[in-house]
Structure formats: structure tokens, C-alpha cells
Design brief:
single chain; 5-stranded antiparallel beta sheet; 8 strands; 2 domains; elongated; alpha+beta
Length: 193
């Protein structure tokens, strides 16, 4: 009889309790589509409003704050003569989620970044050639500015420079523009309405 009473109590208590869903940080596009969600236990890399880049493990997310866990590692020589690393200390850094300027997600920081660099170099080279050609033509007056060969070279270099400006604006890295917004998702039951 006492076992039945104990089982009944355990079942009724388990039905009344429920698990708390943890809060998380969501990186979304401007139209509201989620790019990536960050939970406790996941590594995050972001640029803060103070200009520093943070790479850390999220210890927990609560009350509109991220708690970032950092590890201090120390190298030592093991018995096989190779170098191993051991954790000396750990510490937690608290940061409000609004202090995040932008998050370096794989899609944000590495996708098509080479096209922005290529565009910058093409703009510098093409428009630089155009400027120098026109400047030398006006100052030295050795080659006529509007002959067929020179006009063709200037047109090609100007086109390359314009295409480079377009590539640089379209595919520049995440540091220069923030196409995503950071949203704190509060999953508490007792939220103020």
C-alpha cells in the first residue's frame, strides 16, 4: 500500500512540474528569417559595440545577458615528450545582448568575402589607370587623348574600375555592414505582459 502511495505521489509531482526552456540569441535577416540560433554550450564569435572581437563558449543566457566562459590554458610537456595543454583557470564574462554589434557566423564572415577584396583591387587598378592616363595626357600632351587605342584602353580600365566598385559594395565583409539583427528570445513563463 505504501509503494502505491509513493508511486502515486511521484507521478502527480512529475505531472505538475515542467522543464524550463532556456533563453537563446537569434541572428535574423531584416525580413525576420532566422540565420542561426545560439544556445548555452555553443561557441560564439562576435564584434561588440566597444570594437573588440569576442570568441567564447556561451555558459548561459539569462535576463537579457550572455555569460561567456573563457579558459586559460597552459602548455606542459607530457611523459611522451610532446606538448599538451591543461586548463589553468576559467572565468565568466557577462555581456548584455545589445552590446553585440554583429555576429560572425560562417555565412556572414566567410561567404564571398574574396569577391569584395577582388572588387577593391579592381577599382583601385582600373580607376587609377584611367586617372593616370588622363593626367599624363593633359600634362605631357605626348599621346593624343582621344585616339582609338588610348580611348579603348581608358574605356576598358574605367569599366574594370566600375565593376570593381560594384563588387566591393555588393560583397563587402560583415565588418562594414550589418545585414542581420540580433534578437534575444525570452522563454520564461513569468514574462511581464
Amino acid at each position: 500500500m505504501s509503494r502505491l502511495l509513493l508511486i502515486f505521489c511521484l507521478i502527480s509531482v512529475s505531472l505538475l512540474t515542467h522543464a524550463q526552456v532556456p533563453d537563446f540569441i537569434s541572428v535574423k535577416k531584416k525580413n525576420g528569417i532566422s540565420v542561426k540560433n545560439y544556445y548555452a554550450g555553443v561557441e560564439i564569435s562576435f564584434m561588440a559595440t566597444d570594437g573588440r572581437r569576442y570568441n567564447a563558449l556561451i555558459d548561459r543566457i539569462a535576463n537579457d545577458s550572455l555569460y561567456l566562459r573563457y579558459y586559460t590554458l597552459s602548455p606542459y610537456t607530457n611523459i611522451f615528450g610532446t606538448i599538451s595543454y591543461d586548463t589553468v583557470t576559467t572565468y565568466v564574462l557577462q555581456m548584455h545582448y545589445k552590446a553585440i554589434r554583429y555576429v560572425y557566423a560562417p555565412k556572414i564572415s566567410y561567404r564571398k568575402a574574396y569577391l569584395g577584396t577582388l572588387g577593391r583591387y579592381a577599382a583601385i587598378g582600373g580607376l587609377g589607370y584611367t586617372f593616370l592616363n588622363l593626367f599624363n595626357g593633359l600634362i605631357q600632351k605626348a599621346d593624343p587623348l582621344l585616339d582609338d587605342r588610348n580611348a579603348r584602353n581608358v574605356a576598358i580600365s574605367t569599366g574594370i574600375g566600375a565593376a570593381g566598385l560594384f563588387l566591393n559594395r555588393k560583397f563587402r565583409g560583415g565588418e562594414k555592414s550589418n545585414r542581420y539583427k540580433i534578437v534575444y528570445v525570452d522563454m520564461r513563463d513569468d514574462k511581464p505582459q
